[in-house]
Each structure stands twice: as C-alpha cells, then as structure tokens.
Amino acid sequence: MDFQLSEEEEAFRNEVRGFLDDNLPESHERTPEFLANWSKQIRERRWVGFSWPKDVGGGGGSIMEQVILKDEMAQRKAPSLGSCFMGLAWVGPAIIQYGTEAQKQKYVPDILDGKYQWCTGYSEPDSGSDLASLKCKCERDGDDYVVNGQKIWTSIAMWSKMMILLVRTDQASESKHDGITCLLVPMDTKGIDVRPIKNMSGGEMFAEVFFDNVRVPVENRLGEEGQGWKVTISALASERSSIAEVHGLIRKIDEVKNLARGTIRAGRVMSEDPGIRRRIAQAETKIEAMRLNGMRFLTKQLKGEPLGSETSINKLHRADLEVGLGELALEILGSSATLMGGSEPTVDGGAWAKYSLNWPEVVIGGGTPNIQKNIISERMLGLPKD
Q1: CA 182 → CA 33, 91, 360, distances in Å?
Q2: What DSSP line would sit under 156-184, residue for residue?
Q3: Can you give the pTM of this predicted structure?
Q4: Fewer Cβ within 10 Å of end Cβ, the chain: N or C?
Q5: Which positions of the chain have pLDDT values less than 50?
Q6: Which residues are designated catalytic?
Q7: pLDDT over 70 percentage in the chain
C-alpha cells in the first residue's frame, strides 16, 4: 500500500477542503434551507457518485479521489453524499456494470439525485445466510416474468419505490448458484404486499414482501437470465467495500467519548474511569484496523483487481463494533440507559437505549456474522465446510 497522494490527488483534496471552508457551517447552524442548498451544490459538482461514469451522471473521478472526497467530508462531519443509500451502495454499481444502456439512463440519474429509495429483495424465510438456496419462483410468460414467493428482512421496503429482486428462473439447475435471475421491480406493481416488521424499540426498518403473480417486464432484467448470482456478488462486494471506509464508526465513537465526558456517576466523570478509557482505546484500535483493511481493499481496486471474499472481514468487524459501542454507551449511562424517553433522567431522549435495541439491523444487514465467518473460513482459509 502506498499512502502518498499524487500531485493531482493533493490538488483535489485542497479543492474539497476549500469548498468545505467556504460552504459548510457549524452543525448547529445547518438549517433545512442550508441542507436543501447543500444537496443541490454537491450534485451540481457531481460529487454524488463521484467515481461513476460521466455519461450516466457521475463525476468520472478516480476511486482514490472518491476516497479523498468521503474522507474529507467525514472529518468535517458534513451531510452525507446523496440520500439513496441502497441505490448508491448496491444498486447503482450493479446497474452500471450489468445494466443495458436504457436501464443506466433510466435509473442511475435518479439514484444520484435521490429522487426515491431502493430496497433489496434477497433474503427469504429459509434462505437468509445461505442466499443461493432462495426459492422465490419466476417463470417467463411472453414479454413478462411472473413472480411468486416471499422475501423477508427487506430493509426500508415500505418506503421504497423500486426493488432489486433475486428470483429463481431455473428450478432444475444442478448448482444452487445457477438459475438465479436479477430483476428491477417497481414496488407499486400489482400483486406485491409489503408487511412491516416491528423491532424491539418499536421502529419498523425491515419488512416481509409477498409476491402473488407479479408481472415484471423482461426489459427489467438486470444482466442475463440465470446470471443473477454474479450480479449479487458484485453488489454485495461494493456494499462491504463501502462499509470498510468506517466513517460512520468514527462518528459513533466520537459520540461515545462525548457521552463519557458529560456523564457523572458516583462523583466521577466517566471519561476518567480506567475501564471505560481502556474500552474506548480498544474500540479505536479495531476501527483503525478496519480502516487499514479498507486501504488494502482500495489497493486491489486501484490495481484493477476484483474484490472478493475478503470484504467479509470488515463486515464482521463492523457488526462487532456497532454492538460493542452500544454496550459501552449503556455501561457509561448506568441505570438511566434503560429509559426510552418521556422522563427527566433520560439522556439524549433515550437515543442510546433505542440504538441498543436496533442492533439486529446492523448485524443482519448485508449478511449475518455467522455467514461472514463461514465465507472467511471456507473461501479464504480453505477450511472444510463440516
């Protein structure tokens, strides 16, 4: 890994820093009007999807410039680059790589503009961690595919306009990885029934999605029929690569530090407690290891090498860190950590209690820790399955 930037890359970093100096106010001064104008400015500079091709609305920047941009934004705690997370992390890269020209022109600009949300129809009741065993049935009928089946743990399905959906078009294929096809499906299509799943904190992030003779035009197929697994692996690798950037974890540990500095228990500021300080240091060490892992992934991308199973390492670490930081925050707060809101001793409106109850969203999303461990052990270390 070479951590030295080229002259062009240094110039771009200075450009980003100059823009932030001139346009980004302190957090308490960021009004709704500012955020609306900020989104417009960022989009006009083509910094949303900056490394995507210009002919689909991206910035045409290099992967390294994209990393520089995100790094500078994160350090200054700037608003996110774009509002369509699933589209930017998963769907857009898959459409750019496997989509037809018509699909690229139809969907990618809307993802960059954040006009609506996408969800991913992957997991099923009996096919979660073992995604390739999915059974959602799909048959060709003229110019349409007809879909019947069920998906579960589908993030933000109730708020999404589109879904990237995995179905089985060949029921007799010898390998479970064959016969899978990827479709782009409008969520208002007749026969789709979305049922939100309420989590422990009372929120609704996941949903069940049922398909009853849902007709999808063949032109909405992404990639070739039966090649959906290849599309999926590409999308998941892109998502896990973005996770490696760890900017969200850096912000979260800063919040934990501020919480410790502002919390007094038994006459002691919790940031002075040796046990708390040790655990914060351990978490920061793990985050730095994740960052360096991300740099290794970046090095492969810069060499033109595809990302593979190694991206599971950071997904596994991220889940562990998210849970660990939440537990640490609850320990800092003590008994008040159990309060969800509505009472005087509540800290931050019960945000940390709610955060702790939302851990499954992080742990399940993108693949559970158990499946990440299986991927690492079998595909990277060559260990037997049994």
Answers
A1: 39, 11, 26
A2: TGGG-SEEEEEEES-TT-SSTTSSEEEEE
A3: 0.83
A4: C
A5: none
A6: 239
A7: 94
